[in-house]
Amino acid sequence: MQCEECVKLNLSVKGSYHCSNSCYVDAWEKHKVYHRYAAETVSETLSNNQQEVRNVKSYGPDKYWPESDFVVGSSSDKNEKVMEPDGKIWIKVGSSKSYAPTEHDIGHHLRLECAAVDCSMGTNITPVNITVTDPVIYPPAHPPRSTIKCVWKSWNSGLEAHSSSDLTFSVLSYNILAGIYAIDILCLQEVQRDHFEDLLKPALAKCGYSVLYKTKTKEVYTPNQYTIDGCATFYRHDKFKEIVKYELEYDKSALPFVEALEPELKKAGRFRLLKDNVALVVILERVKNEECFDGNQPRICVANTHIHASEKFPDVKWFQVVSLINGLEKIANSKIPLLICGDLNSLPLSNPHSFLSKGILQSVPNKENDPLGVYQYFWPCPTYTLKSAYASFFQSDGIEEQQRRKMDSETMEPIFTNFTSEFTGTLDYIFFTVNSLRLESVLELLDKEALGSGLPSPQWSSDHIALMGSFTFTLERSSYQGQRLLPCLPSPWRTAAAR
């Protein structure tokens, strides 16, 4: 159930949801404190030039509600404006654990008021400490991330990669849009529908991209409207053409399993497994070029997905990843190279990651993590070998120490792709079939020092960082003919014919 007061106060959507009525009642004493402090923070108008002051949300970190009773409040007796004896006017811009200055703050001082608060009474229990900053300055421009060439002394696929640049392409995966590094294929996750229609679709269409979009299956109510997000895939139409598109709704793939459960487990099964996440899969074919005289062009299958986020449901993450792999198995059997891009919401060495990278179950779940017995019923063995692009880069020859320090030597993955004040770790990946594609380069990783206290920030628009890889086809041309036979994927996969 969703708290309507949170919606009215423009609070965190994730923090507004509760799993049941009793959960909501149990959390209410702490929960109502956030309502009170959020209500205190409103937009003001600067008296000098009538410039509209932006809304600043007055809750804590956007991704999670704080676990403690700590709340930062204003000492200004609930007034949004405070005038000092010297005539200075201070305007309240937020009540939170952290605050990142924006362009509206440039040239102005910031004042932090901090005190310990008795949450049960809403009163200060310590004197107010006040700190005033120097004027906010323009942030330095951050340099664009460079691509790093992979050096291979030997390639274990046993196949020689085609040297023609026409058979090399780049793919970028990101949980929200940033700068485009002349990308051939762009996979975005958590793209809000109105942002897609109003901004991304027309802008990228002008840049020569064809667009595909698949929304999640459930809308979320945000202030004044329902919104929905999804996965968006863009590709350069001068390099590729769409052959067929598949859409996978994970709640529909889970429904047969839920209906087969014992009657006493069905209600829990629906709540646990019927999540709104989706996958968008497209088979692309290289646009005809002079290199191919037999008329056969190589094809590539690109899967773009956003897996369920809650760490309380590892079996759901596992189920969704396995459902995706089951369908892609049929495509791989057609000798079509695979790319899997997305926010998997799974750490390195977790069961979803280990299954994709090694085809194994890393750890046997207990009853608490697998109350429905999902793992024992879904245990496919993929016939193709996948590898993470950045793990492959870590194993390449001549990787510089500067980049090696940004990666975990045990998992061979980046130390982080998601970086906030509450969480730092790797959740995003690009997987590829090693027998049909060779990694040529990747986008350099970032270090924490360059990102400050966390993301998003005025310089970086998402709490995720973008991943990118450039690949070359390694299949022999004789294999292209086998790619002509398109697989028929079972329900609940939905097929859209080529346009």
Automatic annotation (TrEMBL):
Pfam families per UniProt: Exo_endo_phos
Stretches assigned to the Endonuclease/exonuclease/phosphatase domain: 182-464
GO terms for MF: 3'-5'-RNA exonuclease activity
Protein name (Swiss-Prot/TrEMBL): Carbon catabolite repressor protein 4 homolog 1-like
Lineage: Eukaryota, Viridiplantae, Streptophyta, Embryophyta, Tracheophyta
